[in-house]
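Tokens as discussed.
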């Protein structure tokens, strides 16, 4: 098999994966802040992390993947003071903060399932780790922190190479960090945020620095270190975390582990830091403040199977910007349909349990080389499609090769059916039985050369959101539009 090479954001270069523990891979992924539904741009990060995990499994590593749920501590931006996102959502909805967190956590988990993202070894919930966060903060407070009226702050000048991951240091510090009176350095950040005098928050705990809540950055350092141990192998997240959140995590990890500069990547707490690029949508509906923002359920409501979105993500390299459009999603759905039809036909011809024969070894080698090249799923997909289109080969061996590739790509090809892909848009009221009855009547009319009736039935179906697909090369007689 080809050596797995991954792009390390900390060193800005491709590196051969060398596990900390032999034959193991320990991965931590920054999870969602559960104050609202995730949009599809958020979900790209978890498709990417899933592909990484599946590739590590494919390569034979025993995978331990952890994803956190941030249910406390994330403010409405990267500031050190102000409103907590969950407190704000709870007030807006007149609900308890615990109910808000539970509702949006379950919504996120539903999207994870719909996108065929594998369950991690553990979901770490921030509020379940507060005692460990307090112990972590106490252990670094004397050497690396100082107290202000608003909380306990980390002094970034006390660790070597602060901000190397971001490569974006300026004399004024990061522009998104709000100035707090008394901070020693512009980039210093809150480890513990005190509840302001006269206020009471729904989520707050006692600490040596006053009653309050942990800072967002502290949570990930504690949960990753507690579950995976420092240093672990790979830390993932969206590219937006590369500028502030992850540099702050690294600084905390250096302080806690008493490590030195970042010329040695392991001193950061993880050997490799990986970031997926943005999903770009030109209409502005990627913002959660836009009302009908682009969440996975909106795609489903419009008649698109969620795995069409996974396909869209796989078509681009995770480090490239990916532009979203409805036309692009439709094209990804068609590509998925072709594969589903090919595999359905194979399943009808063979029984499971056959292994891929030597005829498929060159294809498996090319597929392996593609995913080993920093998770190049775009190339890996084309190899899968080549195998699916092969003629005059053993059906069982062909299906086995596809299964091995799909175990990495996660398109669920061995169980997905043509019927599964026919998602009913919410505005469509006609039933499938009614559609099939009209299509049968139309077929009879066409056989009798009664084209007026045939056209009338086609127009009637079109008026109810059903597109009749005469002569479609995929054999998809109709679709809901």
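Sequence:
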């Amino acid at each position: 098999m080809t050596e797995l090479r991954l792009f390390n954001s900390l060193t800005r270069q491709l590196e051969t994966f060398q596990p900390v523990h032999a034959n193991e891979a320990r991965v931590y992924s920054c999870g969602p802040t559960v104050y609202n539904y995730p949009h599809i741009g958020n979900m790209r990060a978890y498709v990417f992390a899933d592909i990484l995990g599946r590739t590590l499994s494919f390569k034979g590593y025993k995978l331990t993947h952890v994803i956190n749920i941030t249910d406390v501590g994330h403010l409405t931006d990267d500031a050190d003071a102000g409103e907590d996102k969950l407190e704000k959502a709870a007030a807006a909805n007149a609900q308890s903060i615990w109910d808000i967190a539970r509702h949006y956590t379950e919504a996120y988990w539903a999207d994870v399932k719909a996108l065929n993202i594998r369950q991690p070894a553990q979901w770490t919930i921030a509020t379940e780790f507060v005692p460990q966060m307090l112990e972590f903060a106490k252990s670094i407070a004397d050497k690396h922190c100082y107290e202000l009226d608003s909380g306990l702050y980390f002094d970034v000048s006390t660790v070597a190479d602060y901000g190397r991951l971001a490569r974006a240091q300026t004399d004024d510090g990061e522009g998104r960090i709000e100035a707090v009176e008394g901070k020693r350095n512009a980039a210093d950040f809150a480890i513990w945020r005190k509840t302001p005098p006269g206020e009471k928050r729904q989520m707050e705990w006692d600490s040596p620095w006053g009653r309050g809540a942990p800072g967002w950055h502290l949570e990930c350092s504690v949960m990753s270190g507690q579950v995976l141990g420092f240093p672990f192998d790979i830390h993932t997240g969206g590219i937006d975390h590369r500028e502030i959140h992850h540099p702050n995590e690294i600084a905390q990890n250096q302080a806690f582990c008493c490590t030195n500069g970042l010329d040695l990547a392991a001193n950061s707490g993880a050997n490799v830091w990986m970031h997926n690029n943005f999903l770009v949508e030109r209409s502005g509906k990627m913002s959660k403040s836009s009302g009908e923002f682009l969440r996975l359920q909106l795609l489903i409501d419009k008649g698109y199977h969620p795995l069409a979105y996974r396909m869209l993500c796989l078509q681009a390299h995770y480090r490239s910007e990916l532009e979203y459009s409805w036309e692009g999603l439709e094209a990804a759905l068609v590509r998925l349909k072709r594969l589903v039809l090919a595999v359905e036909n194979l399943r009808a011809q063979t029984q499971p349990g056959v292994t891929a024969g030597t005829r498929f070894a060159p294809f498996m080698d090319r597929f392996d080389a593609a995913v080993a090249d920093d998770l190049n799923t775009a190339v890996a997909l084309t190899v899968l499609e080549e195998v699916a289109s092969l003629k005059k080969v053993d059906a069982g061996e062909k299906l086995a090769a596809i299964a091995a590739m799909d175990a990495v790509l996660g398109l669920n090809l061995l169980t997905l059916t043509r019927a599964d892909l026919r998602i009913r848009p919410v505005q469509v009221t006609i039933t499938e039985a009614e559609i099939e009855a009209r299509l049968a009547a139309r077929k009879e009319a066409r056989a009798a050369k009664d084209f007026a009736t045939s056209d009338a039935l086609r127009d009637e179906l079109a008026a109810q959101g059903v597109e009749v697909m005469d002569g479609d090369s995929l054999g998809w007689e109709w679709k809901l539009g």
